[in-house]
Amino acid sequence: MKRILSAILAAAILILGCCLPVYSLVSDADEAPGEPAESQAELTGARIISIPDKNKTVAKDGAPEDPDGIVLLLVYSDGTEKEEEIKEIGGEFFAGTEKVEYIGKEGEEKLYGELTARLTLKDGEIELSYEFTSPEPEEPEEPEKPDDESRYAEMSLVSNWNSWQPHVFVYFKNLTDHDITVGCYTCPAGQGVSVGSLGLSVSDGDGAGIYYNIETYRNAHTGRYRGIYCISKVVSKSELENVSDFIINHNKWEFFILNCCWFAAKCWNAGGGAYILPIVVFPSITRIQMLFHHSTRSIDMYAAPAEQVMRQVGEGSSAYCKVADTASLT
Length: 330
What we know:
Layout: H1 2-30, E1 43-50, E2 71-76, E3 81-89, E4 92-95, E5 98-102, E6 115-122, E7 125-132, E8 153-160, E9 167-174, E10 180-182, E11 185-187, E12 192-198, E13 209-212, H2 214-221, E14 229-235, H3 237-248, H4 260-270, H5 283-291, E15 310-313, E16 320-323
Parallel strand pairs: 5-7
Antiparallel strand pairs: 1-2, 2-3, 3-4, 4-5, 6-7, 8-9, 8-14, 9-12, 10-11, 12-13, 13-15, 15-16
Helix pairs in contact: 3-4
């Protein structure tokens, strides 16, 4: 029995001894130089599929965000296509296994608007840069300053002494940078308007009633007004509206009752001026009252041309202005 086992063992050793050299040859043959390994496809093309919002815009004096999140379509020489998202790994950027060379815009001044990522292949490697597609934006306009409604106009009560025909009227200087409304009249920025009730010194065609700028025209072009007394105050938007409401609803003149003294004093009081008693008939009494309110002896008024001398027509919501007859101007 021992002999049989020994024979079997010897035979096994002999068989193994013969097989080992054969295995070694096969392994050496597989790794031998000159035998090409399995071929790997080369990157032949790449294009951008999507760009996250963070890479589309950039603020003034800023720079575009890093390209992580941009999705690329990679094309290989064997026809394979892969969608890969760019990711940052260890401070470098990769799309799958492909390295992405990122050409940023750090340090450049005044970068604006929308950006388009531009991708190229250089020696089989991906280069990603940014192209600025929007022009430099215009500087934003400063928002309009809100009206100072406490300073809308300077209102003046004016009295002149002109021989037998003295006169009292009100004058408004626009203090805003836009049109304002005085009665029915639109007064442009930088200008003023006088308002008076007249009857004796105007044409029969226009008739007695409310006129705009007849005093400023006469003062500038005829030298008719002398012996000026004047008191002034700044009126708010609401105070000016009160005066306008009174003017629109009192388009009348009468020699003894509703004459120029009464009308001008009522306008002044409606605008919040120091109270003036609207004594009719006697302009001299109005002048005396003005002396007690620190009146001055002059006023700088806008020199209105003839086309800005207006006659109010009607009263209330239907009131409007028309250009006055030339016969009324002097």
